[in-house]
Every structure is written in C-alpha cells, then in structure tokens.
Amino acid sequence: MIPPSPWxxxxxxxxxxxxxxxxxxxxxxxxxxxxxxxxxxxxxxxxDAEALSRLQGIPGIVTACLDLEGEHWPLAGQRFAGxxxxxxxxxxxxxxxxxxxAPGGVLIYETFMRGNEAYGKPSNPDFLLQxxxxxxxxxxxxxxxxxxxxxxxxxxKPAMRQAICAVRD
Length: 169
Description:
Blueprint lengths: L5 H6 L8 E5 L5 H8 L3 E6 L2 H5 L7 E5 L14 E7 L7 H5 L2 E12 L20 H8 L3 E10 L5 E9 L2
Parallel strand pairs: 1-2, 1-4, 2-3, 4-5
Antiparallel strand pairs: 5-7, 6-7
C-alpha cells in the first residue's frame, strides 16, 4: 500500500478532535487509516466498493460507496470537522465540497497540477490544477489559508503537485 501523503501527515493535527472527518475519493483508505489511528472518526467515501471493503471493521471508519460525479451531490447538507482529498479533482463539485466544512473545519487537499504531463498520468488538463487554483478556490469560499505548496515533488514519484491546508473560521 502507498504510504500516507507527507502533506496530509503534516496537517492532520490541524483538524480538531470530536467531529467526523471526510476522506473523499479515499481509494485504498491510506488517509482514513491514518486518521482513525490518530483517534478521528472517519467517513471514507469512494465509488470503488472493493477498495472500501478493505476498510470494513477498522475502528473509527465508516464507509460509503458513492458516485461523486453524478447528477446529484450525495453529501449535500452534511458538515465535517475536516475534509481530506488527495489525487482527485472534479471541478464541477468543488464549491459543494468546500461547503461540507463545518465552522472550524479544516480542508487538506493535495493533487496534481499543470506540468504533470511531463511525468505521466494524469495528463488530461481537466484533472490538473492551474497554478494557484486551490489557493484561489479556498479564498473564494472564505477559508483562511494555513499552508500552501505547489510545484515539483520527487516523492512518492516525480510529479507536479499543489496542496492546501485551510480552515473555515
């Protein structure tokens, strides 16, 4: 299994205890496992039921097999103490994603950006952030930036990445 993202590990303690954390498009659940190990309640969401089945029975983790790209937003009206997203981008739902943060809720988001074409997939511009895009998105949503990074990374593989940690005051 791929280890947790260093960005997520660095900012996980910014998420207050006591509320549920959403691990959106969680895949194998590397971050859901990390969050649960750190005492957080986690809702792990993905459309891959097989991947979610590997999280069954882990204390602190509840799973939901949901289509995040369908006509209806399946998480509408819910609020979370934190939202963690890595290696996933679906622009049509970004505003609704940010609306999931409760007051004091923390967003930890990290994914690929323009320039990643030189290193492999994803290479489709629809799935690559523009420079500063997460920063602008968070500001538009009224979030206070805690940390932001973008550019080349060598680990876990060479890629162009963008990441933000922001809070809803």
